[in-house]
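hey m, so remember when u said the tokens were messed up on ur end? i reran from scratch. heres the input so u can diff it against urs
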Amino acid sequence: MNRRTLLMMGAGAAAMSGCASMGMDMGGGAGAPVAPAVRMPPLIQPRAELLQPWTGPYGGVPPWDQVTAAKLREAILEGIEIQRAEYAAIANNPEPPTFENTRVAMERAGDALGRATTLMGVMTQNIGGAEYDALRAELAPILSQAGDEITFNTRLFDRIRAVHETAEARGLNAEDRRLVQRTYEAFVRNGAALDAAGKAELGQINTELARAFAEFSQKVTADENAWTLVTDEARLAGLPDSNKAAARAAAQRNNLDGWAIMNTRSSVDPFLTFASDRALREQVWRKFVNRGDNGDANDTNAVIARIVALRARRARLLGFPTHAHWRMQDTMARTPEAAMALMNRVWTPAVARVREEVADMLQIARPDGVTEIEPWDYLFYAEKVRKARYDLDQNEIKPYFELNAMKQAAHWMAERLYGLTFTEVTGIPVFHPEVRTFEVKDKATGAHVGLWYVDDFARPGKRSGAWHSAYRVHETYDGKKTVLNSNNNNFVKAPEGQPTLISLDDARTLFHEFGHALHFLLSNVKYPSFAGTQRDFVEYPSQVHEHWVLTRPVLDRFARHYQTGEPMPQSLVDKIDASSQFNQGYQTVQYLSSALVDMDLHTRADPPTDIDAFERESLARIGMPDETVMRHRLPQFNHLFTSDAYSAGYYSYLWSEVMDADTWAMFEEAGDPFDPAIAQRFKEIILAPGNTTDRAEAYRQFRGRDPDVAALLRNRGFPVD
């Protein structure tokens, strides 16, 4: 099925921002019998090299070694024409509409184009550069128009509506009826029922948005491809040796003499935590938080104003009061009010906790002559409080978290919980020399499950953050296809010959993104359109897997000191456990302020034109503490402005965390983080079915009740009442 229709069905983008990421979890019904393959009419044979079916092992793999910007352009333009012809054949079929000749046929239409856009998505996000930036800028509006052609095709929609209205009479099973129902609703939600004038206007809006999304992404990426150069080593006092070495290597890669603090979170946060030079901390902090907001060629404020105005116009055209109301139709929360109710319940105790944290920091900071905690001081003095209160230094932890060992830990977790094995394979085409590939098998049967790619390290041109990407989803409707997917991180690579040590937060990020990959790899859906789930459910499986990082079995086997080989001592684990709720005010306020401002922005019928002023006023309305800043300020908020994916949806991490915390409590109550009965139920009910069943009902089936927010509040150390 073509990429746009997949988006409308709720599968999300092939690369999902969120986690800090852009990535998508896919799932299917474990143990379900494989249905006989549906006989599909032959599709148009493409000419372009990058439109051909993928060949090679594992059911075919992406031909990364053949990709160039010019070849991609050729492939996508031809792919659009092929897709147009394939949908025309469905819409103009002289036979009466049936489930098979209409909805099932749509699953396969656009496959060739989908292969090419998957390649383009990875090249623009993981590689970048002027050629791919230009390609995205040129093709984004063209692809948007091609998608609108499908949605606005009156004959196609008439056939979809006819199948929808007769689905029960035709005796379709529950899964097929759900596919028909969701397809019909998605087409209506995206303008299929508008009159000709309305469709023309909506098409224009969508095209302009596509251009704006590409522009925003390129500006932010350009602002992140920068650094703060330090030429006096004395100014790096307090910075761990591993971070100094990484900064030195970054400078050398950019032909600089000194140490480069790259303008990405993986470089900035450690600097703000450990560097004692307060003036330099402020300089690094300001450069980072002002990405996209410097009044220069990379300033994004005007782009954002254009995006929110177009979104508001589109919402009105589609009959919704605001963009948020339109976006949340197909979510678990359903309404902005429901999402706001949860966020407000957590916001008040989070702000109160920040006040307590600041008071604790000031006791340590005043002897340094610091009378007010500024945002560039927060991590630095919080680390000092942590050391004083819990005798815990983050530098004590890092030597136990060597990157390769923690990847092995994630694989072992997947084997214990779900019976998956990961074996590194070579000789597979990759898009960068640092990418590694692993074959995934079912341990019990030895059957091939999928191929997992890993792109771990930050580099110029690569977008920031961490995300999961889908190259191919599990499906059985037209012959079984197995999974191809990837995890993408931005860890700071150690100098040649040295181990890459990551922080505890980095380790959790690794397990989080791996949770997305597992959701995808355990998929067993019949139709690829059911691979994804609602935005406020999709982060749940990834977030819950973060909890296994600090389980004793994982630590004993894999958290071993990179020099001595000794496992992390229990005394250190006890310190980590004792401090588990430390700094939760800061972490919660940083995230939740971004989510609240997102919802405030997108629940306005008349959106603002001065984005900086709106951000300030919105933060003032919610009582944002002066001592910290949004995790993602609007001028660099990729989640919101590189696509519609997380717009009016950044709350979804918190919504998912309610289920995540409640699920982990279930394992804790069992007394075993690898309890086989719970793991099997989680796999079969939560991970495997994708969107073949209602996800709220699936959670109730798994847990025996609705999720309880109390578990989340307890995890963060906030009052439950």
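this time it looks ok to me. The mean pLDDT is 92. if urs says something different then somethings off w ur setup not the seq
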